[in-house]
Amino acid sequence: MLKDGFVKVLRSSWLTVVMLLMFVGCSVANRGETVPDTSRVVANEPSFEDYLSSKATSKDTFRFVVYGDSRGNGRGDSDEAYVNFSVMSKINEYIVSLQPKPLFVIHVGDLVLRGGADMYDLGKKAMKQFNDAQIPYAVVLGNHELYGSYMLGVKNYVTVEMQREYQRSFCTSNTVGPICFPEDPKLPGYKNLAFAFEFGNSFFAILDSYYVTDSARYIDDISPEQLQWFREKVVNTKKKHKFVFAHKPIYSSGSHNELPTKSMRELMNVLNDNHVDIYFAGHEHYYVRRKIEKAHDQKWPNGVTHIVDGGGGAPLHRPDLAVGLSACAAKYSFTVMDITPNEIKGVTYGFSSLTDKIEPIDKFCLVGDGKPCKDYETQDKIVDKCLK
What we know:
It contains 9 helices and 16 strands. The chain has 388 residues and is of the alpha/beta class. It has a single domain, classed as Metallo-dependent phosphatases (Purple Acid Phosphatase, chain A, domain 2, 4-Layer Sandwich). Strands 3-2-1-13-14-15-16 form a 7-stranded mixed beta sheet, covered by helices on one side. Strand 4 and strand 5 form a beta hairpin. The longest helix has 29 residues. It is globular and about 50 Å long.
């Protein structure tokens, strides 16, 4: 009888374990967004540059799209609280319908409300329309991707643990995003955080303005080693057009009105000295275009066009007209860039609600050295009001 009792207990224990495993499996299946994305670069997959070359009919004529700040408002525990799926779906649907199709999309950060593999998977889920359309996308690291937790009205802190988790999990392939950034031998430790590449007659650099280590924090800043790496890259490129992307604007035009750090001011000098055409950023939840030639007793004779395209779904902000803006809108937005050998043309589209029609809210054209194209001479005129 003792033996029979022992067998019954053993069977009961095994049944309990099996039932627990089934429960966990069902729970994971029902919340597919929390399953970590373990996919990585396929062994024989072509490089991102080779992929672009194979897709372009002309290397000097191509299209890309920029937008950012798609996180949710943090209210509640639904997926929409973490990522604004509704706004992103409207934006992404329009982008994938474009003809010609964009060769790639760059999201300028704060795709999700906070860090963690489950959050990154939600972000990837929201960008799935690009995967389905075979459009690769790159994501610039924002501050929200590094928050270990997030609470409204509370100071939230970036953590090195979230940065490591981001580097591990926010990477899928070289060809259909999120694009894996190769680690540059001159910039160890920045894999999937900083990246530079050339295509056609254009140079691109993605920078990390939130790099953290166990011993250092560069928040709203750029580290000395990253600044030196970027300087070498942009000095040595022979390309006519130059585009730089980071989450943090160097000079704010709204609610995040922090003055730039010494390193960020030096970054502005590097942009000016090397005739960078456009510095794209997010962080502020609106659309702003601003040619910066002077600020806070500093001058940049070439002028650097700053575009803040943070209208991807996060709660909208209002720009500050006092700083002098050439275009602005407190709208959800994205910018379509068309590149030719000698010109850079951009059209920014916006909408205020999900029922609104997507319409152009800004147009601009550059020929290099900060100069406007013919018939665009008034594009840098300061506006007296923003679009609502």
